[in-house]
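Inputs:
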Amino acid sequence: MKISNLHRLVQMAATASVAMGLAVSAHAQEEPKLIINGEQEMITHAIPPAYIDGLSESISGWVFRTKETQALELDDFDNPGMIFVDQAQELWDKEMGPENKSCASCHGDVSSMKGVRTVMPKFNEKAGELWTLEDYINDSLTTHMGMEPWGYTSTEMTAMAALIGNQSRGMPMNVAIDGPAAPYWAKGKEMYYTRTGVLELSCASCHEDNYGNYIRADHLSQGQINGMPSYRMKNAKLNGIHARFKGCVKDTKAETYKPGGPEFHALELYVASRGNGLSVESPSVRN
Amino acid sequence: MKRTAFLLIGATVAFATVAAAEVIAPDDVVFNDDGSVSTSLTGVAGDTENGQKVMVTKSLGNCVACHQVTALDYAAFHGNIGPSLDGVGDRYDEATLRGIVINAKRTFKDSMMPPMYKTSGFIRPGDFKGHSVPNPPSILTAQQVEDVVAFLQTLK
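Outputs:
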């Protein structure tokens, strides 16, 4: 655990005792709140599951962004990611492929996807492997619609992931790490703490030991994925989970893994579990 | 034909280097028990101007990504991952500074600071594009390490 976490714990304890006397939480007043469209409050701080030993608190990446960037996520009219969600909604209703089916033909209104994002990735019994939301979308395209799969990080795929994620907005992430998912989780955890590349940095070097600090101009967050896909100012498009992982691995001057490949599947499960309890924000806005 | 030309150039470079000074290769660096390195990597005195340049350049040392340094304030955005390097020339002697720059993990156990003069023992080494680079060059050359060490000694 990093030292500032210890400070934080002490602070939280102090806050708690004050709160008992005054019935006011100082903590809640310090931090800005993420309330979308003036009505839906996101959980941006959560107590991580007991099996996450490196964090005393899980914090959404939104908290670490500048006021200007934060503001863009407060309202769907300002959130540039919503343009892609609207495009995916058209795609959801569009008949395509040799069988002329739309997603809606079988799934009805996209609101039927409520809750789906909170448990992804999950172990798929039929396939005998861990599947991400992207895998489920591609499975429907290929086995239920007779179509070619979409590219794992393609525009359609990321937009559809955002639309489906959006149905769970506000709900807490809740991935399962036990049973058949356990070996994936263990592998992901090992990857998270392995210092790779010429810079010899692990995910934990930046996102566990140094969140809240600055690396050059970048304010480091915990690298949580509850907000994925996220619209980034940097490339003015939606970015999926594996695309983001790839960028971070490259930054350590390391040979990266393939988006959609087995390594990033395992890493996604582990990283998702570090944010169990945080609200789904899809599509989030980040720089 | 091409091969001969290549060998010839190689030989000339090697000869020139030997003539100038004995450069200590990354794998041959001798660390003292405390992680310091007493011997100059090149025998050529460090150039403080060039040392500064290395420290603010992203593709080189990029030291300011993690350290605040008042003397380098002209380069925007200093990070705060590591301690400020102000006064580091008073805190440490030359050998200690050289050891920290070459491979800080020898001085500070498990340090997050990347090794600046190391070419082996990496896990999945690559470049900033994510491609595999099995035998990567060190981040800094021997002379760049000496240049940085010379500049750090001026931070008093």
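Remarks. Helices of chain B lie at 2-20, 48-56, 88-91, 94-103, 142-153. Residues 1-19 of chain B have pLDDT under 50 and may be disordered.
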